[in-house]
Design brief:
The protein is about 0% helix and about 40% strand. It is globular and about 45 Å long. The two termini are about 20 Å apart. The model has no long low-confidence stretch (mean pLDDT about 95).
Length: about 200
């Protein structure tokens, strides 16, 4: 892991998946032209930042995250946080713990890029996802903020003792923090991630 003077640390070396681990369907993630390529080979798959850990994944509580991202048309993906590498079901369809920053330009999916999936949903994207754009989000105590190309899309504070509807019970911030994961959504979706970095906050 490379640390910058301002506290940012790079999570991706631009060459291979060192420091990352897939929870299911390893072929869903490869490195292509200096970027992580996410394309689920069979079903939804997730790539977790693990650093030097042999088991589990690195936990982040209060932090700011950035990545440069692009996709093909009609593609879906996401970036999970405060999640867990063991939080999926069966062959790890969708993660049942934590929040997801939505990345999506599929016509049939109404929750668009920049949404905090199923919590604060946008019905229109601010960008053309087939061109490189920046995703940035910040978690500070109970507050979650998201920016797409430096335009804020979400400013959400998780209420105390919030109860989620069925199927979303785990969509909560963990007092101990949690993992970061990139999503390969389905075999027809293609997303690329580069310049991935994070900095911890007090």
């Amino acid at each position: 892991m490379v640390f910058a003077a301002d506290g940012w640390q790079s999570l991706f070396n631009g060459k291979d998946l060192t420091g990352w681990r897939v929870n299911a369907y390893p072929g869903s993630f490869t490195v292509e032209n200096g970027a992580i390529r996410a394309n689920a080979t069979t079903e939804s798959s997730h790539l977790f930042y693990v650093g030097d850990l042999k088991e589990g994944a690195v936990r982040f509580k209060n932090f700011e995250f950035e990545a440069t991202v692009r996709s093909e048309k009609e593609s879906n993906a996401g970036i999970y946080f405060h999640t867990d590498i063991n939080s999926g079901k069966g062959q790890q369809l969708h993660l049942s713990k934590g929040y997801e920053v939505q990345l999506n330009n599929q016509t049939r999916e109404r929750k668009k890029t920049g949404s905090l999936y199923a919590i604060v949903d946008l019905d229109k994207s601010l960008v053309d996802e087939t061109e490189w754009f920046k995703v940035r989000f910040r978690v500070e105590n109970k507050r979650i903020t998201i920016w797409i190309n430096d335009r804020q899309t979400v400013d959400y504070t998780e209420p105390e003792n919030v109860e989620r509807p069925p199927g979303f019970a785990g969509r909560l911030l963990d007092p101990q923090g949690g993992a970061i994961a990139l999503q390969g959504h389905d075999p027809k979706s293609f997303y690329w991630f580069k310049d991935i970095r994070i900095r911890r906050l007090p």
